[in-house]
Amino acid sequence: MSEHLRAKLGPLLEALRELALKLGAEDARPLPASAVVVRDWVRWKCRFGCGEYGRRLTCPPYSPTPEETRRVLGEYGSCLLVKFGPCVEAGYESGVNVHEVMFQLERAAFLSGVYSAFALACGPCPYCEECNVEEGVCRHPERARPSMEACGIDVYATARNAGYELKVVTSYEEKPTFFGLLLLA
């Protein structure tokens, strides 16, 4: 991140980090957009491992491709990686809806003047019990955002680049850690 961008975004990044913690995140760390790792194989994990594949407009094959993600990331200089968990994604047993927190962070950044702010969440969109895939029109476009994985982001590698240590969850009894990413400027 350039010194000019750091000076411009420094106070905002700290305010967004504090807001993330207030909204239920465990931690949040700034990182340069160049530290976000995009891999083509990641969407295969969605296609051949997730029961929501093709059932949500925020999931593959409808979500941005890795190629699109790389191109758009090139237009950003700074991000905020937001850590949640360990929690249970589907039930929000921790009381934290990652999608909603990321939406609130995007909105706060936008209202602070970073009109290019865009949030990515984790897992399938939770806003509708059944997505409007047949008509191809989202019922909640103001809030619905794709997951990092759906866009081809290697969350493990990106988290490592931000200084987090992640391990593979090896049983259904273990509660995973989740991440969201706020693209800033």
Explained architecture:
This protein is an alpha+beta fold and 185 residues long. The chain has one domain (3-183). It has 5 helices and 4 strands, in the order H-E-H-H-E-H-E-H-E. It has a 4-stranded antiparallel beta sheet, sandwiched between helices.
Number of domains: 1
Radius of gyration: 16 Å
How would you spell out the order of helices and strands? HEHHEHEHE
Which overall shape is indicated by the principal axes computed on the Cα atoms? globular
Please, what is the oligomeric state?
single chain
Distinct helical segment count: 5
Helix fraction, binned, reads 25-40%
Q: Strand pairing plus helix content: what structural class?
A: alpha+beta
Main sheet, how many strands, which sense, barrel?
4 strands, antiparallel
Kindly report the spatial arrangement of strands forming the biggest sheet. 1-2-4-3
Taking all residues together, what is the mean pLDDT? 91
Outline the low-pLDDT stretches: none
Instruction: Give the CA-CA distance, first to last residue.
Output: 10 Å
Strand content: 5-15%
Number of strands: 4
Topology:
Layout: H1 3-22, E1 27-32, H2 42-47, H3 66-73, E2 78-84, H4 98-111, E3 118-120, H5 155-161, E4 178-183
Antiparallel strand pairs: 1-2, 2-4, 3-4
Helix pairs in contact: 1-4
List keywords for this structure.
185 residues, alpha+beta, 5 helices
Question: What's a quick, concise take on this entry?
Answer:
By secondary structure, this protein is of the alpha+beta class.
